[in-house]
Write a structure and sequence with these properties.
Length: 513
């Protein structure tokens, strides 16, 4: 087992052990790629959603939020192109009977070459020491340049064959690269087929009159069909945005990466409506703004990168992903797409209704262009959670497991611990808790020795522990312990609220954007 697999396994088991994520319907052996958020997970997820909503909606006076339905008129999905083109290329291994996404097999092959590049860079960095210039090395070292060329050739060939629906060539590429089933090593592959990812269902009681529906595979279309309603009732002027968060459903072919790829998941999307011709500037603007949002959480600048798309979706004239370094490598976390006027035009055509914007200043009507930012809430959860989980060596040769969640996102902000279960200490601890709970999510814990309780809260991601001891009875002070530094200071009970607020208040975090 590699280090990466090991770290990922720890993430999954920690998420379960500490009440973050459970497998759905676990007592019936679960449902593949469907998960439930438990008591801590639901809080963390809500905090991430709030952090996004505040940054995107509340902080922009030209962006409003909606909450549209999961069910939509089925023609929506004809118009959007999902009925005809929301497919993934699927390939089966004849020996193992395992199913894969053909494009992902090829991308993973390229990721392995990237791993080789990283090794060359590390080696060279050691050899050259302080004099090492990474940029120069990458662009001149023949071996590294060769690796990059290889990746580029492979990915552009794949993009071309997928674009032209030449699935035989996708298979040929897999064979030429001698890509084997990662689980068994077998290279006995079937043909590549297209597979539609939408879930179908039925609306209506009787079989004859029932209407075929889809569970929405993205939240974006709920925004497009409401575009004119919102623009008119909100008296919105271009440029403006409509945002929403909500469930989406995809019958994913491969679902083996915990909450990274789920069949039921939640998206946080924003469609920004702009004047045609300004899409390049707005694309750059939203790339930068969204990256700043990510970096504001302090999860390590080196863990993010942009990945511009080679293969553009049928609706886009530019697209990039913000990738994050998950335990299994750099993968897409958020997509930023310049969607042109494709969606609004399609809905105009299929509905027969005009979906144009009338510009009072220039007295002209036009179909706006759209810039989209689309991030998976669950994937963001995984990014935050996996990045936070660390095993730390301590001075006394022991280790501690600590979940270093950004304090603004932590489910529980402070735990209040009476040193002993007597002498009136629990009563004071309860009083402190009753006072703080108006402002923060707080917990009370009196079981076990205080050291063990600290460890428990560390593993739970709680930024502060507040200990009530016998001195508290005399002088109304308590010990406050910081999760990350383990530093302990003595403070007055009356100062606790401000102290905690300083660290967890969304305002101060959002100001970093
Ligand atoms: P991928 O290439 O990983 O399948 P995608 O490019 O199809 O993703 P989009 O359609 O751009 O994804 O969706 C926007 C965001 O929604 C993604 O960046 C991701 O964070 C999230 N997302 C998409 N599919 C899933 C899924 N099955 N489970 C969890 N999150 C998802």
């Amino acid at each position: 087992m590699t280090n990466q697999d090991d770290q990922f396994k720890k993430v999954v088991s920690h998420a379960k052990e500490y009440g973050y994520v459970f497998q759905s319907s676990e007592i019936y052996d679960g449902l593949s790629a469907v998960y439930d958020y438990a008591q801590n997970g639901a809080e963390l997820k809500k905090n991430i959603r709030d952090y996004w909503w505040k940054a995107v909606v509340q902080m922009h006076d030209n962006i409003v939020g909606i909450d549209s339905s999961i069910f939509m008129h089925p023609t929506t999905w004809k118009a959007s192109g999902h009925v005809d083109a929301f497919n993934d290329p699927l390939i089966d291994n004849k020996d193992s009977k395992k199913r894969y996404r053909a494009d992902v097999l090829i991308e993973d092959y390229c990721a392995k070459i990237e791993g080789k590049i990283d090794k060359e860079v590390d080696k060279a960095a050691k050899r050259f020491g302080d004099a090492f210039n990474k940029e120069e090395f990458i662009s001149t070292n023949p071996r590294v340049v060769g690796y990059y060329d290889k990746i580029k050739t492979i990915l552009s060939r794949m993009a071309k064959s997928l674009e032209s629906e030449d699935l035989a060539d996708v298979k040929a590429l897999i064979e030429e690269l001698e890509i084997a089933d990662p689980l068994t090593g077998s290279r006995n592959w079937t043909e590549v087929k297209q597979f539609n990812l939408m879930f179908g269902t039925k609306l209506g009681a009787s079989a004859e009159s029932a209407m075929d529906l889809y569970l929405r595979p993205e939240t974006a279309q709920g925004i497009f069909v409401n575009f004119l309603n919102v623009q008119k009732t909100g008296r919105m002027k271009i440029p403006f945005g409509i945002a929403q968060t909500g469930k989406a459903f995809r019958n994913e072919i491969v679902a083996r990466q915990f909450i990274f790829r789920m069949r039921e998941f939640e998206q946080m999307e924003m469609q920004f409506f702009i004047k045609p011709g300004t899409q390049k500037e707005w694309f750059e603007h939203w790339k930068e703004t969204r990256m700043k949002w990510h970096l504001s959480l302090g999860m390590g600048d080196e863990n993010y990168r942009f990945h511009d798309h080679e293969k553009l979706a049928h609706y886009a004239d530019a697209a990039t992903d913000i990738e994050f370094k998950f335990p299994f490598g750099f993968k897409e976390l958020e997509g930023i797409h310049s969607r042109t006027d494709f969606d609004l035009k399609q809905h105009e055509e299929f509905s027969g209704k005009k979906l144009q914007y009338f510009d009072h200043e220039t007295n002209e009507s036009y179909t706006p262009y759209v810039l989209e930012t689309s991030i998976g809430l669950d994937r963001m959860f995984l990014a935050v959670f996996s990045n936070a989980l660390v095993e730390e060596e301590l001075d006394n040769n022991t280790t501690r497991t600590v979940l270093k969640l950004p304090a603004v996102l932590a489910p529980v902000k402070a735990a209040i611990l009476p040193l002993v279960k007597k002498d009136g200490l629990p009563e004071i601890a309860r009083q402190i808790m009753d006072d703080l709970k108006w402002d923060f999510n707080v917990a009370y814990d009196e079981k076990d020795a205080v050291g063990r309780r600290y460890r428990r809260q560390d593993a739970n991601g709680t930024p502060f522990c507040i200990t009530v001891d016998h001195d508290t009875l005399e002088d109304q002070t308590v010990t406050i312990r910081h999760r990350d530094t383990m530093e302990q200071t003595r403070v007055k009970i009356e100062d606790l609220r401000d102290l905690i607020k300083k660290e967890v208040d969304m305002k101060s975090w959002l100001k970093k954007i």
